[in-house]
Amino acid sequence: MRVLVLADTHMRPDGSRTLPDEVWAAAESADVILHAGDVLTAHLLDDLATRAPVHAVLGNNDVSLVGTLPETLTLELGGVAVAMVHDSGPTAGRAGRVHRRFPDAVIVVYGHSHMPADELGVGGQRLFNPGSSTERRRAAHRTFGLLDLADGAIVDHRIVAIV
Which domains, from first to last, does the chain contain? Predict the structure, then answer.
């Protein structure tokens, strides 16, 4: 199962911001799309859903989506337990904090910082932040994530830089 992972797209209500072509191309081959918050408008989620099923969580800037998106989400994809949250808190102590919150998750997808991260946490739990495909801020590049999940395992995981 191919999973496109997004976060912090910060789409503008006036439609003046769009996703890069690389993200739309990845969406075309995705089996499912995850968005870890700060989407800002439901319009993007609707557009993505024309390519693949979309699962999203509420970000701190998603005021128009309060009551529509959950703050956290757990689901199974390709037999892999996946958890999602927008803000996983400060870097210091993140691995332990996330593991306590989602002890059964094999991978925890989060956003908020715009800084891509793909690392192992407590007990081998993978912590995955795709960064932002629209606002790099302090990151070297705009980024998004791709996961391949099958038979209860993470087959491949990578952050894709948009250069």
Answer: 2-162 (3.60.21.10)
